[in-house]
Design a protein that fits this description.
Elements lengths: L4 E3 L23 H22 L6 H8 L1 H29 L2 H30 L9 H4 L5 H42 L1 E17 L2 E12 L2 E10 L11 E6 L5 E5 L20
Antiparallel strand pairs: 1-4, 2-3, 2-5, 3-4, 5-6
Keywords: Membrane, Transmembrane, Transmembrane helix
């Protein structure tokens, strides 16, 4: 994501961008990456669910899942799964230009994969031993870690995945609407040259990116105007007051501001004061 990012309507993770030349984002290109990451998390989750939480369908599979070699391979697979979810996040940002949507896609890959692993193992275990009764009281009474505890943990991941999935369509619609506004303003809106006149640090961060409120002065149709916006950026890319801005607006009252890439903007030299505190 190109920073700094400005929004006159949203703040934090809902702030949306559209890189010049890119079209409004689509979910379809993300599906193969989402499914791949989910499958990796499902494979990774099979070991803790099967070997530690009593969900292995047979003793032989339990021994296999708890074998040191299997555990070692799973640890390596865990890093691959983390990287795959990171790839889902970055590709979601490329498509939708929004941290909120990207976070939901990445979360769905993790929670969905782990829920799938638990569900498959639970079904396999119960069908392999029809006489095995499912009793939640075993969580408190069993001398060993019972199947029911794994099922509860798996159900928690399934609930997490379901909530994420329910939130995703609205988040995608919001991001696409914001991107469509930016695309329309670039094609049809009034482009004005502006000046950054105020930069106020809010003492808040999103993923180590400091948040600001800013004001931009510009002239439209011969009249001076001021627009306020939220800004998210990296600590080393905080533009100085006086930086040249581009203001796009239309007769609907929709406004978009961005740093003028051709202006050679200067940034705050002391990046340390915008870094998140350790406390």
């Amino acid at each position: 994501m190109s920073l700094p990012l400005f929004s006159t309507t949203d703040k934090s993770g809902r702030m949306t961008m559209l890189l010049p030349g890119r079209r409004v984002g689509r979910a379809a290109p993300l599906m193969p990456w989402l499914l791949t990451a989910g499958a990796l998390w499902s494979l990774t989750g099979s070991v803790p669910f099967g070997a530690l939480l009593g969900m292995a369908p047979t003793p032989a599979i339990n021994l296999f899942l708890g074998h040191p070699v299997t555990v070692g391979v799973t640890v390596l697979l865990l890093f691959v799964a983390i990287g795959a979810s990171g790839g889902v996040y970055s590709r979601s940002v490329e498509q939708f230009g929004q941290a909120r949507v990207a976070g939901l896609f990445a979360t769905l890959s993790v929670a969905g994969g782990l829920a799938a692993a638990a569900g498959i193992l639970l079904l396999w275990t119960l069908t392999s031993d029809p006489s095995r009764h499912f009793d939640l009281e075993a969580i408190a009474t069993s001398p060993t870690i019972p199947l029911e505890l794994g099922a509860v943990v798996g159900a928690s991941f399934a609930l997490w995945a379901a909530i994420t999935l329910l939130r995703l369509p609205g988040a995608i619609a919001h991001a696409r609407l914001r991107q469509a506004d930016i695309e329309r303003l670039r094609l049809e809106g009034l482009s004005c040259t502006g000046t950054l006149t105020a930069v106020n640090f809010t003492n808040s961060w999103l993923h180590n990116s400091p948040m600001f409120t800013v004001e931009v002065n510009y002239i439209a149709q011969g009249a001076p105007r001021v627009v306020s916006a939220h800004m998210r950026t990296s600590a080393d890319r905080v533009p100085l007051v006086g930086s040249r801005m581009i203001v796009l607006t239309d007769d609907r009252g929709t406004t978009h501001v961005e740093l003028d890439p051709a202006s050679g903007a200067a940034f705050e030299p002391d990046a340390g004061k915008f870094a998140p505190s350790d406390g």
